[in-house]
Specification:
The structure is a single chain. With 584 residues, the protein is mainly beta. The chain is built from 3 helices and 35 strands. Strands 1, 2, 3, 4, 5, 6, 7, 8, 9 and 10 form a 10-stranded antiparallel beta sheet that branches. Strands 11, 23, 24, 29, 30 and 35 form a 6-stranded mixed beta sheet that branches. The two termini are 21 Å apart.
């Protein structure tokens, strides 16, 4: 079983954004064995940061605690390059606040003690360990940590999530480079084979020497074998459709831009709109601030966007005023991002105002995000009374293509048992399918849904069963071809009371299961299924992305049960998961 195929065992299925919650204790020293955590005893300003084996980092910072003890915290995710991909405030009751793992149900857990060094602190930890089928897991807890108290989670002796820093009572502790880094460690770089050194040979007399060997040519440094890693992005790049209100704005401002250009081309004076009344005179500036569309980026492919340092876009704009010089003029560009119909302001850039008569510089602005980016011009000036007025100019939209899913991780786990019941042997198996990803920044979870389909067969010899039972099983025969199992909106995500799709900010977790039960009395048995999961969006007729999991089991005779294995294959996992039927 590969390490990647076990990453989403129950203990770490929610590790990326820590969606799992456990009951919090209200004591200063929580009893982790009962599921308590340290959120209830944490304070404003406390924070904790974890690193995931797949590269991202997640950080929780407490910003407020209400009278009813609800905790408000900032939830920040950085990708492996250190860029912020999600940063949102959340408010939760202590027993609903996120933690990095939970103890498994119905599995015996062994407790021990260990130490974990971080910065100038040494944490005394309680360690819960267990084994499941061919896999092992562990969680390290510490009562001195804020925001949950989990130090790290371990799968198959390799760290899946580990503490990389925390702050408590105003003091920070960070995992330094000098300290031993948690597993998993990158494989040591293979070093080139040492070249054989010539050994001194006795040379009593000169002998003919072999032809000198040519100097070895410099060889490229050997590179380590790439370690299995989750897919960083998944699915074909999509181009976001501009919302109708944006298309209308573009049409309206296109007309306005044309009229303003004509005005400035025809107007030769240097005065704005002049108003005179009973000896009073005022002059209202006329301002034209618009992007030069033909010299601006409009749509970027995903590969182009990835290759650009700082994820920049190129823009060019022009500002004209009447009068030509405005006192205290200041120009800014506001960058915002659209997610569905929701627009979020991201940053504001100050632009250098050129000397009168000089052209405005072209700009390269960083921070474009996948989806629809809007850039709006703001022009401020000061009137004769010292009052500052801000004029909103025209906007420009840049669409960045991107796959619908980021940080895609597909994982499976399985459990198979055999139980002797008199002269008969019963067989049971359960397969857990766990997918997780960060949704495309331009997509809203409320606009998405998940479709689950499957095809396959379950065959067994029913001739030895009573007639009523044979008829009941025959009625459950599955038609050939793909059959829809479920279609779930992300906003709900439940099927028969169980949560299949869980969403936290833009992070999505999908959990689904497959079960099998039979006995030696119905052998030979075949259980072969393929499940397909499709990401759907209300504005797309075709799925934005899909992934699959297949289950394969075949047992011919009772004597084959002890060596039979359930095989599970999944998109993104190189080696199949094979689980034998353990004796119960």
């Amino acid at each position: 079983m590969s390490h990647l195929s076990r990453l989403l065992l129950p203990v770490v299925a929610l590790s990326l954004l820590a969606l799992t919650s456990i009951n919090a204790g209200g004591q200063d020293a929580p009893d982790f064995k009962t599921g308590a955590n340290t959120w209830a005893t944490s304070k404003v300003g406390d924070w904790i940061e974890y690193t995931l084996a797949s590269g991202p980092k997640v950080r929780f910072t407490i910003t407020g605690i209400a009278e009813n003890k609800d905790i408000t915290y900032q939830h920040t995710i950085h990708n492996p390059q250190g860029e912020v991909v999600s940063d949102n405030p959340r408010t939760r009751a202590p027993d609903k606040a996120p933690v990095q793992g939970r103890l498994p149900d119905n599995i015996e857990v062994t407790w021990s003690e260990a130490s974990y060094a971080i910065g100038d602190a040494t944490l005394e930890c309680q360690v819960a360990s267990w084994s499941q089928a061919e896999a092992t897991g562990a969680i390290w807890f510490c009562k001195d940590l804020p925001c949950g108290g989990i130090v790290k989670t371990v799968t198959d002796s390799k760290d899946s999530v580990w503490l990389s820093g925390f702050g408590k009572d105003g003091k920070e502790h960070l995992l330094s480079k000098a300290e031993p880094q948690p597993e998993p460690q990158p494989e040591p770089e293979p070093q080139p084979e040492p070249e054989p050194q010539p050994q001194p040979e006795p040379q009593p007399e000169p002998e003919p020497q072999p032809e000198p060997q040519p100097e070895p040519q410099p060889q490229p440094e050997p590179q380590p074998e790439p370690a299995p890693a989750p897919v960083r992005d998944y699915g074909d790049a999509i181009t976001m459709v501009l919302p109708e209100k944006v298309r209308q704005q573009m049409r309206d401002q296109g007309v306005a831009i044309t009229r303003m250009r004509v005005y400035f081309e025809e107007e030769t004076g240097d005065s704005g709109a002049v108003i005179e009344f009973e000896g009073m005179r005022t002059e209202v500036p006329v301002i034209y601030a618009a992007f030069v569309g033909e010299e601006c980026d409009k749509e970027l492919s995903y590969q182009t966007w990835l290759a650009r340092d700082g994820r920049f876009v190129d823009l060019r704009f022009d500002v004209k005023t009447r009068p030509k010089v405005l006192k205290g003029m200041k120009v800014q560009i506001v960058h915002s991002h659209l997610q569905g119909e929701t627009e979020t302001e991201l940053s504001t850039f100050d632009v250098t105002v050129p000397e009168p008569g000089e052209a405005w510089d072209s700009l390269r602005l960083r921070g474009a995000k996948p989806g629809i980016n809007r850039y709006t011009l703001l022009v401020s000036y000061t009137n004769s009374q010292g009052e500052t007025t801000t004029h909103k100019g025209f906007s420009h939209w840049v669409v960045v293509q991107a796959p619908p899913m980021f940080e895609f991780l597909n994982g499976v786990s399985a459990r198979a048992t055999r139980t002797q019941a008199g002269s008969n042997t019963t067989l049971t198996a359960d397969v857990s399918m766990n997918g997780s990803f960060i949704l495309h920044h331009g997509l809203k979870a409320e606009d998405c849904s998940l479709r689950i389909t499957r095809r396959g067969k379950r065959e067994m010899d029913l001739s030895k069963l009573p007639a009523p039972l044979r008829r009941a099983i025959a009625k459950e025969a599955v038609p050939p071809g793909w059959q829809e199992v479920a279609r779930l909106k992300f906003s709900d995500g439940k099927l028969a009371g169980a949560t299949v799709v869980a969403v936290e900010d833009s992070f999505v977790r999908v959990s689904f299961g497959h079960s099998f039960a039979a006995s030696a009395a119905v052998l030979p048995v075949t259980d072969q299924w393929e499940y397909r999961f499709e990401l759907l969006h209300k504005d797309s007729a075709a799925p934005l992305a899909d992934w699959s999991v297949s289950v394969d089991l075949s047992i011919a005779r009772p004597e084959d049960i002890t060596k039979a294995k359930l095989k599970v294959r999944a998109t993104g996992i190189e080696k199949p998961l094979e689980v034998a039927f353990s004796k119960q």
